[in-house]
């Protein structure tokens, strides 16, 4: 076991998912399963709907963290539901963490953010059988808070959670799936049918309200450990949130750095337009987990749901959402003031 105090590597273990296929396959058989609207299989794992191909990597991570608990030092974990702005958050955090190091920071100009900060399941996937697993100090996850390895919850790891207006997240997922033909042989359901399943919580890493509330309550309980962010808030004032994230991570900008426009630079380089138009992200051969880099940059706007769903559907969704979030204090503004008073024709 090796422990290196830098951003590259802090945790090396010696097994991979291929070492224990039998036990886990038996486990898979015991889990409830269903199909998502796109025909892909989901298994109920630790209380959430996990894409089937990710169950074993996540089980393996859990084991790894359990067995190496004593050697674990503090991680930085970026947690999101898919299509909530993960790519953006990865770019921002990579730039913030490396703001002192021009050479490191500039990697964002030639690498897709997903290659710079990897997902937990992706780390397991890319590890060849029987070889060491190298866990970086910073990684991303789509897992709900309660499903994180308990050692992470107990350690002084810092978690940054980003969520998004769920209707925009739903639309973003819909286009992502259709663009990438994940549905394979299956006829994709209509958007209304897909929304119905979303409302039932049947979608990757769903139910979405439980996902959000898990991190929300964790952030209320320990705001030094969990920073809870909304996509819409960061869009509204990215500069402010870059500073907040830096403070939270204990790597604030100096006065001089601020005066030299370093924060503005980070905001600009991580912006949707800038990242989308980088050669690396336009390159048709660039892929992350079989998804073209360009697929992670669609519109990058707030309120796109209104181009695809009726006002009445959105209003009943809003009612549903309010009920699910209850008196937690977590709220989303689904509508602009004009939409709030609008009706379908
Ligand atoms: P992932 O979970 O598969 O990694 P994720 O990055 O969370 O995907 O979501 C992609 C969404 O973030 C897309 O939203 P859209 O479909 O509504 O357009 C994508 O356009 C948006 N996005 C990507 N980069 C940025 C950015 N720099 N700023 C704002 N939004 C962004």
Top keywords for this entry?
345 residues; alpha/beta; three-stranded antiparallel sheet; 18 helices
Written overview of the protein:
- This protein is of the alpha/beta class.
- The chain has a domain at 44-167 and 204-303: P-loop containing nucleotide triphosphate hydrolases (Rossmann fold).
- It contains 18 helices and eleven strands.
- A four-stranded parallel beta sheet has the order 7-5-8-9, sandwiched between helices.
- A hairpin with a 5-residue loop joins strand 2 and strand 3.
- Helix 1 packs across helix 2 (52-67) and helix 12 crosses helix 14.
- The longest helix is centred in the first third of the chain and has 16 residues, at 52-67.
- It is globular and about 55 Å long.
- 3'-phosphate-adenosine-5'-diphosphate binds at residues 80, 82-88, 168, 172, 175, 270-272, 275, 296-300, 304.
User: From the coordinates shown, what is the CATH architecture of the domain at 44-167 and 204-303?
Assistant: 3-Layer(aba) Sandwich
Give the CA-based shape.
globular
CATH topology of the domain at 44-167 and 204-303: Rossmann fold
Low-confidence blocks of residues: 1-17
Distance between the termini: 65 Å
Query: Would you identify the CATH H-level superfamily of the domain at 44-167 and 204-303?
Result: P-loop containing nucleotide triphosphate hydrolases
CATH classification, class level of the domain at 44-167 and 204-303? Alpha Beta
| Main sheet makeup | 4 strands, parallel
State the share of residues found in helices, binned by percent.
Answer: 40-55%
Number of strands: 11
Order of helices and strands: EHEEEHEHHHHEEHEHHHEHHHHHHEEHH
Number of continuous helical runs: 18
Mean pLDDT: 88
Radius of gyration: 20 Å
């Amino acid at each position: 076991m090796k422990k290196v105090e830098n951003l590259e590597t802090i945790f090396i273990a010696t097994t991979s998912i291929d070492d224990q296929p039998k036990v886990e396959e038996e486990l898979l058989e015991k889990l409830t399963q269903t199909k998502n609207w796109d025909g892909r299989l989901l298994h109920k794992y630790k209380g959430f709907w996990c894409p089937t191909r990710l169950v074993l990597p996540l089980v393996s991570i859990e084991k790894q963290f359990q067995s190496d608990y004593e050697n674990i030092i503090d991680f930085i974990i970026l947690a999101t539901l898919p299509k909530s702005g993960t790519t953006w958050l990865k770019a921002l955090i990579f730039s913030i963490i490396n703001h002192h190091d021009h050479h490191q920071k500039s990697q964002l100009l030639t690498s897709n953010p997903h290659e710079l900060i990897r997902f937990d399941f992706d780390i397991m996937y890319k590890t060849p059988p029987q070889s060491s697993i190298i866990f970086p100090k910073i990684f991303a996850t789509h897992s709900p808070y309660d499903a994180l390895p308990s050692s992470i919850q107990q350690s002084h790891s810092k978690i940054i959670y980003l969520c998004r207006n769920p209707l925009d997240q739903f639309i973003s997922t819909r286009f992502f799936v259709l663009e990438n033909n994940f549905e394979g042989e299956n006829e994709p359901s209509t958007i209304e049918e897909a929304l119905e399943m979303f409302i039932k919580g049947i979608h990757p890493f769903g139910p979405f309200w439980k996902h959000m509330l898990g991190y929300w309550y964790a952030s209320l309980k320990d705001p030094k450990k969990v920073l809870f962010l909304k996509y819409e808030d960061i869009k509204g004032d990215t500069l402010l949130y870059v500073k907040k994230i830096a403070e939270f991570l204990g790597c604030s900008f100096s006065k001089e750095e601020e005066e030299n426009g370093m924060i503005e630079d980070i905001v600009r380089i991580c912006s949707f337009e800038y990242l989308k138009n980088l050669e690396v992200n336009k390159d048709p051969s660039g892929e992350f987990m079989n998804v073209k880099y360009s697929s992670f940059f669609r519109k990058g706007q707030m309120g796109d749901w209104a181009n695809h769903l009726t006002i009445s559907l959105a209003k009943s969704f809003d009612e549903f959402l309010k009920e699910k979030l209850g008196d937690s204090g977590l709220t989303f503004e689904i509508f602009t003031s004009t939409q709030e008073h609008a009706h379908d024709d």
